Amino acid sequence: MRTYDVDVIVIGAGPAxxxxxxxxxxxxxxxxxxxxxxxxxxGILNQCIHNGFGLQYFSEELTGPEYAGRFIRKASRAGVExxxxxxxxxxxxxxxxxxxxxxxxxxxxxxxxxxxAMGCRERTRDAIQIYGTRPAGIFxxxxxxxxxxxxxxxxxxxxxxxxxxxxxxxxxxxxxxxxCEVQGVFELLPYTNxxxxxxxQCLNDFSIPLYLQKTITQVHGRDRLEGVTALKVDKKxxxxxxxxxxxxxxxxxxxxxxxxxxxxxxxxxVEIAPLTGGPRVNQDRMANIPGIFACGNVVQVHDLADDVTxxxxxxxxxxxxxxxxxxxxxxQKIEAGKGLRYVVPQKVDLSCSRETPLxxxxxxxxxxxxxxxxxxxxxxxxxxxPLPFIKPGxxxxxxxxxxxxxxxxxxLNIQVEVxxxx
Length: 422
Description:
The protein has 9 helices and 28 strands. The chain is of the alpha/beta class. The chain starts with a strand and ends with a strand.
């Protein structure tokens, strides 16, 4: 097994990995290597042929492949090396990375910093325990997207979508554009889990029905799916007997949540935050193990690739600076308070002076209008950010500029909560 020395290793060549690698190279890391298990860089963006990417980062509308292509070219110009078709087997706390590939065989890399950017995976039928047989025609929405957009296969003709996450909404529209009969999108909750713009552009604009507080409980069919049973639920998500409805279909697409891909992280000893399913990180996106950073969907499931890029650049800059001893020393907790499910980062060091803003990502528990995001210490309000509305399906991003960070006192835990609204 050959051994190589590098400055920064990035695991994953999706939008998070590419963004982190470029910023690491631009901030002084001489040898930056990106490891990707797929045959080409770009990650999930390669199959996202719809537009809507880049509106925030580039101030223009791009497709997924176009968005990825810009970063692939930028990485090449920056001197970032990308090794594809390479599986990472282990990341050691000492920042040694063991890989395997058909071309290079077993390799060991000794890195000064490691950035985890493995993305996320979809929840499957087993995760939500839909009763019934095991016929063909049941796919996760992302699998169906790959079949349609990359492999050139249509998953079916009469489609039901379970779950109103963004990929479910987008695939409902995609199936309609391919000439399929889309029976509707079924959502367990009383509100959608996707971006508001996707509800309008993917469902409303194409007259695709949306059924809130209604879920799929059973599939029917032996060799091929023949239909599903749908039931209404109450506000506490309890099934309502007597509301059963048989919906004929030959294809069921599941958009029932994403799981950050953290098997490598756990094996390394990285502390995982239970509410996000990703590493518990500080403002530089460094985990509990010095020199190991994480960003993008491996930390938290994002709605926008643009936000993934923003978070990855934070991690990339910090990974490059880590080798110079630029690390936080006195961290304090950041806690999610009333109205919020979680806040990222979960810790921060306010004792060190920073020229860059402090960016909070968070998710609301329930939809609310005319609210304020309050940042406080010791129950004393320090900063307030009014927002016209919040909803669980859209990440809240709060940027605290350097001059405002000074209003927070080092050594005291920070609480973030929602106030007002209804």
